[in-house]
Amino acid sequence: MAGQTNNALPVHQWIRTLESLKAAAAVASNGPRPKVGIADLQDFASDPYYTGKLLPTSPKSIEACLRLGIDPTSLKYLDYDHFLNKHRRHDLAKLEYEHHETARQGRFEELFEEKKRLDASERAEKARKQRAARHPSEDENAEDGLLVEREARRVEVMKRKQERELEQVKSFEAARRDLQLKAEAKVRELQERTEARERAAKAAAEEQQRQRREKELAKKLEDEMKLQKAKEAEEDRRRREAAAAEAERLAAERLDEERKRKEASRRLKALHAKQEADRIAREQREEAERRRRELEERDRKNEELKLLRHREKAEASAQARALAERRIAAAKTAAAEEARRKAEEYAARQAESEARRAAKEQLRAQQEAEQQRLEQAREMHRQRAAEEAKRREEEVKSAALRKTKTKEEKIEAQQAQREAEAALKALQHRLEMADKAEAVEEAKRREAYRQYQAAEKLEEEGARAARLLARRKELQCTRRAAHELASIERKKAVEAMEAKLRRI
Predict the structure, then answer these.
(1) Which residues contact 121 (CB under 8 A, 6 or more apart)?
(2) How far apart are CA 223 and CA 227, in angstroms?
């Protein structure tokens, strides 16, 4: 608090400082410079651009500070930014700012009230002096004698009263010291309790933090296990899909190999059939050629026979020779027709075989295209399944991370709220302790100033009693001299009367 900025000064030194300031203000009260009172002090204290010393120069204002034990430096205005730079938190800055400002305004109100009481006391003293000046004593000598007697008695009574007051002050000071020691012990006890509570709260917070970390670690391990299980399930699914795809691929390869084997067998059979057809055609051609040669040989032989018969018979019949030629031509025509028919049948079989091969090739191409399409579809399905599994895995990871982050943010917010509440309570406790300490300091200053005033008054009363006693002694000496002079005068008169009587 601002009121504690000058608390390093001991109480008696603080009183001497303000007393010297009050004495200087009393000397300079008739000077040209204006005096700084409580209201001026309030204006200066609230001015952030005021750089002078925050000290009053009016004697009554200084007297009010002394009587209330208020240090003028505790009246300095501190703006909100001062506490914000100190705490870096708006709630703490607002709390201490409002607390400081309330205490500061309360001190100003106390000073204003005390200043009013001092003004009223001063007016009453002036009125008493004016009344005393209007009614002076008629017989100053008699009044002085009576005054001396009364003052002597009053001084004795005052001495005894002051001695009793000093004893009371000493006992009060001892009691105050005991109370201060008890208050300090209580403050220490409260501080120890506060520190113990803070340590317990810190230990509890650390325990909660440890438990939270353990729970988070267990949750993280559980999430990792779930994620690992999900990965294993995904890997198992991928392995199953890969095995199924591999089985499909092997089956497709087997089908392809079977198809290729069948196609090779078909081609081999077709080749064999072609070779067989070629062989048959060749054999047929050879057979036709053999028959033709045989026919030609038979015809030649017949012709030779006929020639021989013709030679023998001289000349064969033209009709028989024409018939033979027609038979030969018919045999040749039949052989050629048979060869043509077989060639056409072979060509038809070849065309049919080529058509079947083309149809099978087209079917094989269609099957290969369908197999490729199915393979592409299966590959796309596997890719989509892998992407979906990866997406689900990323979603699980993201959800786990979001959940963990949300939980961490919630825990951090709760921890920050608890720390803020603890800091607020700690600041409130420190402000209460500071108020109590400041109240103790102000009480010490007030009591010390009362003791100072009592001692000063005792010195003044002693000096006044000494002056009155000196005046009493002077009056006694004067009366004694007057009595002696009167006695001498009476003695001279008696002697003169006796001398006259003797002469008579």
Answers:
(1) none
(2) 6
Integer CA distances (angstroms), 343 to 82, 277, 286, 336, 350, in order: 121, 9, 14, 10, 10
Amino acid letter for position 17: T
Angle between helices 318-503 and 90-134 (to 10 degrees): 20
Give the end-to-end CA distance of the chain in Å, rounded to a whole number.
103
Distance CA 84, CA 251 (A): 80
pLDDT in tens, 373-385: 888 888 888 788 8
For CA atoms 421, 425, 428, 430, the dihedral sign is negative
Domain count, the chain: 2
3-state secondary structure of 33: coil
Task: Say if residue 225 is in the same domain as residue 110.
Answer: no
Please indicate, yes or no, if residue 224 is contained in any of the structural domains: yes
Asked if residues 323 and 306 have their Cβ atoms less than 8 Å apart, the reply is no
Structure tokens at 234: 């995904």
Run means of pLDDT, 10 residues per run, the chain, 504 residues: 50 82 71 69 71 75 85 83 86 88 88 86 80 56 53 61 62 68 75 77 77 78 77 78 77 77 76 75 74 73 70 62 71 75 76 80 82 83 82 81 82 82 85 85 84 78 75 77 74 72 65
Is the pTM above the cut of 0.90?
A: no
Asked if 107 contacts 438 with a C-beta cutoff of 8 angstroms, the reply is no
Final residue of a structural domain among 347, 374, 409: 409
Distance (Å, whole) CA 396 – CA 387? 14
Last residue in a domain, options 68, 102, 135: 135
List the domain range (segments joined by +) for residue 353.
220-409
Q: Return the SS3 of 6.
A: coil
pLDDT of residue 87: 84
* CA-based R_g, the chain, Å: 71
Which tokens in the block code for residue 68?
């209330």
What is the C-alpha separation between 489 and 491, in angstroms, rounded?
5
Tell me what pLDDT residue 139 has.
44
List Cβ neighbours of 223 (8 Å cut-off, separation of 6 or more): 400, 404
